User: Fold these one by one.
Assistant:
Number 1:
Amino acid sequence: MSKKVTMQQIADYLGVSKFVVSKALSGKGGVSEATQERVIQAASQLGYFSQKNAYVKTMKLEQLPKTPAAGKQSVLVLMPNIRFQTKESLYWGRILDGIAARLEEGGYGMVIVSEQSVDHFLHFLNPNGILGLIGVGEISTPLLLEVHRIGLPMVLVDHEDMLIPSDTVFTNNYESMYRLTKHLIGKGHAQLCFVGDIHYSRSFKDRFLGFRSALEEHMEEASRFSISGDYYLSVEGFEHEQFQEPIKQWAVKRIKAKTLPTALLCANDMIGISAVKALQELGIKVPDEVSVTGYDNIDDSFRMSPALTTVHVPKEALGKRAVDRLIARIESKQEPMEKLLVAGELLYRESTGQASAAFIGS
């Protein structure tokens, strides 16, 4: 039986005092943000957070009043107002709709919190009447650490933190993008490029890995495939306008070099829509000359011309499954953490077609 990991062991591992470790893990300040991150990472590597009853206040949820002042128990939904993660979003808002619908079915209340500051967030972490927390989108490690420290059950949607153990709910990003890439390869496309920032989120990275895996499978059986830095274009932003100009500038260079891909597989629909517009401004026909795909199936993806081939993410279903997982976690606290994958559906529309016989730019 392994021994319990202690704060002293973490301190020895980092070469700091136990006092520094205690301060960093308490979330009450007294150490720099960089030091806190180092302590959290070391604690995670040593297995401190994974051990039973580690770093949890003595307060037990079973000891809390069963009936809060509002007359029913509620779930805290944390949706930090960053990267357009808001209830008005065509993507995140639909996930929130699913959470709300399932909670209403179960007779639970919902408290939505848009907060990034740990100090401000602590105001909402008085667990009287709060069953647990559902995090939607990217949430900072210090915020998740505070939830873990209190011992509040939590489930994360479309996000995971490698340092903080929790249940998570995703769409099957890797498999869906793998299938979409294989589809385009089957259409004769040999020069393909993934467009998006793989560091933006876990979902983007998994989508890229699915794309790359499909390409690598064809390297031995088809010499025309060449895996190099040319198969990935990193673009950053949150709105169409922020993606469109960088993609356009990149396309101009590739046209001059006669290396413009025949298919662009974009990390989400926002990027895909921007890619189509950028190519059209350059007089490149989609999909006759270049095929373009997105991911998520937001409303704008089928309203544009040509309609965007994409992967439908069952956004409401993600929210509902998160509620189901949270209730199951509350009822079975000692069960292993789970990562649930909800299947996406490939939607083949007008923005993709057979590869052009003549390579663009040649």
Number 2:
Amino acid sequence: MSSTAHAERIGDIAAVKGVRSNTLQGFGLVVGLPNSGDRGNFASSNLITLIQKYGIKVPETIHLSSRNVAAVMVNATFPAFAKKGQEIDITISTLGNAKSLRGGTLLATPLMGLNGEVFAVAQGQVLVDGVSAEGIDGSTLDVNLASVARIPMGATVERELNYDSVFANRHITMNLHASDFATASEVEKTINAAFGPGIAKAIDAGSLKVVAPKDSSSRIEFIAMLKALDIQMPEQQARVVINSRTGTVMITENVTLSPVAISEGNIVINISEDQQVSQPNPLSAGNMVTTSSSQISIERRQGELEVMKSTGTLQDLVSALNTMGTSSKDLANIIQLLKQSGSLKAKVIVI
């Protein structure tokens, strides 16, 4: 079965080099928990260190032990072009044995990038989607995860990233999300057809250089117009994705099978092709036409025999195997055997 091309925007399949989000992370404390915090000394010792930063001396004879505190890791995604004073969402996860973060408050926590510099500060009342309950006999009930929480708009940006490289150079670089020679060539043709010959030049299968206006305002408008262009996507590689746990199979439309015979367990699969010749009427001006038809037969040695005549596609084979009640493990094995034998013309991905 041949696949048809489809249109997508360039902005959906490519991004401007240098314009990207970054990961922020920090260590913090959640306080105010209703006796559901950490049971060890780790969170308490960090709380003492925090108190001492405010000039309050804690005597050595005092052992601060509280189940109202939990040590947590705070994660956030720092979006491109984020400005000082803007707020971003954060996710909080427990580090110790805290049962739940419900009802807690995150103390001010600096969020750092991989270079060790602080880009935002997080704090606020945490929101927990999960519920955790424990009985007297030690039995527990968990709905979702109460050890993970979030704070919408819980961090304030304190430092900005530099994006001068996007505006300083004569060219901008567009990187494809998935490297492909055909796609890079098609993007190059589409941009040159819209803005003029020589504007775009493919560097390799994953990136293109595009001549852009020097003025920042004009460049922003140009990038917006460029990303809105529609591109006719070339035919993609045939793929079969198998979820080995659920037995779900995803098949692209350009997957084909060639003749093969495979025995897997108690199932025998036979795929064959039959050439049929259509002769024209002797008095007509027609030509002789040869067509191919495929047959798929599936035999269960300890059960009934099922034979299916079709166009010989993998979709038909999977449907027949599912009708016979084939397990997800057997289905995955059969598809991989078809791939190894060379009959299956597709890339197989098992997850």
Number 3:
Amino acid sequence: MIEFLTSSDAIFALLTLTFLEIILGIDNIVFISIAANKLPEEQRGKVTNIGLLLAMVQRIILLFFVSFLVGLSKPFYTLDLNWMHLELSWQAIILFAGGLFLIYKSTSEIREKVSDPKHDEDEVKGKAIKSLQQAIIQILIIDFIFSIDSILTAVGMTNGLSDNHNYNLILMIIAVVISIIIMIGFANKIRRFIDKNPSIQILGLSFLILIGFMLITEAGHLSHTTFFDKKVGAIPKGYLYFAIAFSLFVEFLNQKISKKPTKKV
């Protein structure tokens, strides 16, 4: 167990996943804050912390459920045609459906944030909240909605790291707990930083497209899918880590350049 958690693959996965969990949690923080701001000032901080803790609990419960389904790798149906072979399992179905969901969710989120950045916030603002209980119920619903892509991202980043699914589950839980602790401690600072640098969140959503595509190919690989005698291979996670690190480095350079004062000729 310790050897797995201290391996380079696990460390890279943990760092990348924690970063993505925080980026994905920004909208969650914003909506929780909007719901909390409808209450008296003395209750706002309490509701915000309760909301983030509920998000953590919900994600851990969902992680157990999804990890159980992903662990069902035994094929229950085999399709064998002249041009295609497929061994269908619940693991492959969950990964394939999760990949499609991440691609759809991330592209629609990017489109919405470009065309109408305040659309979701306006919807939450329009809902009446008169008590602490109503705020917590609304936050629970918001947390559940935002937990889905978070969980699928965690599965995509850790699936295949270890043959022992429990090790992958522990790594996902550690990433979720760390990200929630960071959000509780630095929620306002993180939100202000993203407000000043909205391209970071767009970049994080773009990473989900990569993860979604990786989940689809991994589903094909684990189901031993072949097209015209060509096997579907899994994308090595090292490629994903490199793409994310390179994109963040380019974004860092862009931020540096944009903050430099332009010299007048």
